[in-house]
Specification:
Chain A has about 450 residues and is mainly alpha-helical. Helices cover about 65% and strands about 5% of the residues of chain A. In chain A, helix 4 (about 55-65) runs antiparallel to helix 10, helix 11 (about 225-260) runs antiparallel to helix 16 and helix 18 (about 360-380) packs antiparallel against helix 19 (about 410-425). The radius of gyration of chain A is 24 Å and the shape is globular. Chain B contains 11 helices and 1 strand; from the N terminus they run αααβαααααααα. Classes of the chains: A mainly alpha (about 450), B mainly alpha (about 230).
Chain lengths: ~450, ~230
Amino acid sequence: MRRLRADDPATPPPPWLWLLVLSYLPMLPGDAVWWRDQVTELWADGAYSTARIGPAALAALRATTVSQAMPTLVLLSGIAAVALPRLRGRYTEWRYALVSPPPGSPAEDTLRALHRALAPHAPPVTFTVSMAGRAPSIRVYPRGRRERRVALSLGFLALWRRSPERARALLAHEAAHLARGEHLIAGLGSPFAGAVAAWPVVFLVCGAAPVGWLLLVHAPTAPEMLGQVVVVVMKLPQTLLLPVLALWCAELAADRYALAVAGGRGMAEALHASRESGVSRVWGRAHHPPRRLRLWCLARARRPVVPLLLWTAGPVALLLHAVVLTAGGVLGLLALGDPPGAALATALALAHRGLLTPPVWAALTVLPLAWPLLAGVWGRLWGAPRAASPPAAAGSAPFRETSRARRLPLPLTAALLPLAVLAVALLPPSGALARDPVLGHGTAAAAAAR
Amino acid sequence: MSPGRERPGGDDLPAPGAESFEVWAGRLAAAVAPDEADFAAATARRYAAGGRARRVLLRAAPPAPGAAGGELAAVLPALWDALAASYALVKTVLESAVFGHAVSAAGLLVALEERRRRHSAEPGRDRPATPRAAGPSPADADPAGVVAAISGHLRARGMTPADADRAAAEAVGALCRGADRAGALAFLRLLAEYPPPQLRPRQRRFVPRVLRGLARARPGHAPRTPGPGDA
């Protein structure tokens, strides 16, 4: 098994996106139980009723529950994207008016040139062309488990002639996604990316708006709903943090590969052309990193900081998730009337329990260490060509560390953070969670409070 | 036949003139947007077919924001639409024996500027209120008038004024320079046989102005068609 260099742009970072989607599978049974309990409590005269909290508050609670369906929807859409690639491909082709150019068409020469340019970097693909007057320049999508397609816009075909350097950079970027199997999860028409992007809108309509309405109508239970507001508000970053970071990592790694293949100028031109504003700009953040961050990473592509960030993205995300969980827990418990010290202790205990969710922490710790050995296997799994490194773009220096003897190898450096996370996770629990009257289990007081 | 309905037989165009159709599509693309010559005939056929194929060609696909490279728009769909909308004017010019074949794009641009200076007292003349003019006006039946009309339609599709003028001038120049004016007219007739899709006047009344303004401002809805030289 050939070991790939960690700082080589041909070596993909650990597949955080795939790890995230696979981690959703063991969460499904717990989610089903949670939803069963919610429906029972809110719609089957369970713990809540109009007599106890008033009709307005009950309606608001039910509406906010809809917003809490979004994390489940993100989870299900991620699994569906992988499990139903053919259905997704058909829907994507219909939605974007994608057609396969017939043999003998004038565009055949252009498509042959695209195939030749793509072949060293990605498994075999089929090109389709969007017949819309304006469409995304180039994106990948699946048409089956092993059938990969690249959707081109009419504008991209023109760009190939007009600005081949920029077009090659975009092509190399998409090739990197194909070689890592990311087209099954992300890409054009991805239900996963769509659900992640739709979450803020659903939150505003079904999460924040009902509580705001309660406050406006001066409902008597409005102040008590503030705790629910905190829960719903903090649910947004908790839910989105991991999938958004995973999607961003995939894009930054693909940028890095495209830079190595096509050079900095082509990639920079492509990124500048993607400037957006308004709603599109905000919406795009859900599944693509900000343009500034991408340009920052491109400027530092030959330094170890970028591959280090990509290799430690998983543990970093887990730590950030724990921070968000702690902050949300503190705010929610304060809203319920807990003293600050007890709220902080309970929230930290909640976050500590979240870090120990198996097997996530184990995978996040072991994966960066083992990845140099596994990366080749992963690439062959997706049919990536056996290229040692992408041919360096004309005029660009090769990617090499200048003084490797003075620095720890990248995998070892990248493993320090997950080892620190593991050490924190293995600390003994403080017991604050069990003592909490609301969140603790197994006490009569807790049962009465619930 | 109501606007936007598909041509009977779907994508099949009449056999006579089919070769001229592709030749003229390529000729116009070579003059206006050489980078898009590969799919000139395909897009012209889809436009001429009408129905859903034409609607898809003229609109923006659902946005997929954030990706490198953004969204790219093609010039030819807007050009076919502008030519179809200006068919009556172009027909008048092409059938006239007055205008010879020695027509250059640069000359047409100069003539257009002179025409605009003469009509400077009537602002908005070059930009029709609706994509289709009521009919050819005798004052517009000259190459500069045709360029102005086509440019107006291209601007309505989001092209910048300078690029619209240039594209229109190149297109009219290519049409006038061709020896086979009958073929050119046949090509344009196939494009214009079914009226371009648009909001009917009674529909406009029920679309609040605010929503129309928001729709125009939303990225992707009214695609900003780049000029032929945009990179």
